[in-house]
Amino acid sequence: MLKLKTLPWALTVCKPASAEQIDPAMDFYFLGRTDEEISLVCRTEDTPEGTLAREDGWRGFRIEGTLDFSLVGILSKISAVLAENGIGIFAVSTFNTDYILVKAENLDRALAALAAAGYVAEG
């Protein structure tokens, strides 16, 4: 079964006013830019000043290892387990793997639900 690694930081999802506000030297962040918005997920202490909107209080975990692009349904199975337990998610993906964010107050419950479904959660 897949292993899940809990990230050690509090996370924030925000909308910076501009890309120039984002420090590329941060050690952990996800950046999305479309024709309508800029979205940033980062450690809470690294959140840029003057963001247009922000949602604090997230925690996250990642699927350990490198996921092959031919694998199907990994994120949907995890999100289904969490949905069945009334836990909302914010998901982001990298080339290697997926990251699932839940509100901090739901982290322990999320990991317990996933462990009951056969996932191996590591601290």
Quick structural overview:
Helices cover 17% and strands 36% of the residues. It is an alpha+beta fold.
Fill in the keyword field for this structure.
123 residues, VC0802-like, 17% helix, alpha+beta, single chain
Architecture overview:
The protein has helices at residues 74-84, 107-116; strands at residues 3-6, 11-15, 29-33, 38-43, 53-63, 90-93, 98-103, 120-122. Strands 1, 2, 3, 4, 5, 6, 7 and 8 form an eight-stranded mixed β-sheet that branches. It is an alpha+beta fold. The two termini are 16 Å apart. It has two helices and eight strands; from the N terminus they run βββββαββαβ. Helices cover 17% and strands 36% of the residues. It has one domain: VC0802-like, CATH 3.30.2130.
